[in-house]
Each structure stands twice: as structure tokens, then as C-alpha cells.
Amino acid sequence: MNGKTAIIIPSRYGSTRLPAKALIEVNGKTIIQYVWEKASASKLADEVIIATDHPKIIEACQKFGANAMMTRIDHQCGSDRIAEVAQKRPDIDYIINVQGDEPLITPESIDACISALKNTADADVSTLLRVIKDADEINNPNIVKCVKNLQGYAMYFSRSAIPYKRNDVNHTYYGHLGIYGYKREALFKMTSLPQTSLEKTESLEQLRVLDNGMKIITSVVNDDAVGIDTIEDVERFKSKLL
Predict the structure, then answer these.
(1) Which long-range contacts (CB under 8 A, 24 or more apart) does 160-165 make?
(2) CA–CA dist 149, 167 (Å, integer)
């Protein structure tokens, strides 16, 4: 495939834990603007699009010059939202889903996700991991953990501490960063499949991919991104900017 690579940022207004979090301002910029600026600095992406379900987010995006598209309000997850945009753009072959609540993700990390997707022939999806250095994060359900095999493919994602430390082994725990790269056909396959019980149980859309035998290649990056899910996360983000 030689078509375009597009970063599509899903941004839902009615977040369950922190409504309208995309529009929270920190140092004069909204959370969604921070994410858009990082995505726009990618060297491997051809285009950045914000996909939202609310006119207030459209209006905010227009103020800082982003290309934003209105999507349906009833999507189950971010990948469903970006698939709606991709359906209208047959020229896009690689779709990168950068979560709209990851304002500290770096352009270098985004490019690592793109590179892994394009250079791994049998991967359907790519994503990023980071080494968890804070022991408290291992048991924090807001920090999604991943176990991967020796070839770098994801085996499972969970809000629980995985693997369970039954024995005193020096094991590295990996946290998941909120980014996915999809080959076009894989995105449409994933979003056409019904939600699985694992996905519903953990509220993690990537489990639908694994449940259906699709492959997710991971890359480990040195990126201490902060996902914005709570007011405490907003305060952590503010502290990172100091």
C-alpha cells in the first residue's frame, strides 16, 4: 500500500469519568490542542484529522486551525469513530488513532507506531508500550497493562496487574499508551465485529482485536505520557509542564 498515512484523533464530548475533558484548558490551551500539536509534528504522517461528536469541540478546533470532522454520537469506541472518517477517505491506507486525551505523547512515539505498522507484514495493528517504573501504577486500573510475547506481539491487555507475581522474578511491567495504527482493511474488519465479552468486561477495545485472532505488534518507547481520565490526571499533566 502506497497511500496516505493519516492520524485521526477521536474526541468524544461526553466522557463518563470526566465530561468535556477535551476542552479543559491548561496554560491557555485545551487538552485537544495539545494532542493535535503533537500529532501535527509527526514526520511520517501526511494528515491530521480530529473526529468528534460535538459542535463545541469543532468550534475549539477551528480556533487553533485543526481539520475537524463531525461524527455520529453513538459510537462504542474511538476506533469506530475513526472508521467513520476513514470510510469517507479511500485514499488513506494507514490510519493512526491517537487518543484525544494523551496530551504528552511525543511525535517520535507516534512515528514509532507508524513505522512498526508499515514494516511488519503480518501485523494488523500496531501500538506502543512503556516500562512501568512506579510500582503504584501496576495496581492502578486506570493504567492499562500489556503482556507481549518474545516477538513483540501483544498477548493480552488488562486493567489488572498482569502477569500476577506469584514468584519473586524480576519481571518488567509494561503500560499501554493510547495510540493504535491500523492497516485500512484491519480497521474495517475490527469495527465490523461485535464487541466481545472480554472487551466489555475490561472496557478495552483492543481486546476485540485479539479475541478475533488479529495481530497487534508493539513497540516499547521511552514516553511517560499522561492519559486524562480524572481531575487528578489533569493536575499531573500540569505538573509535567512545569
Answers:
(1) none
(2) 19
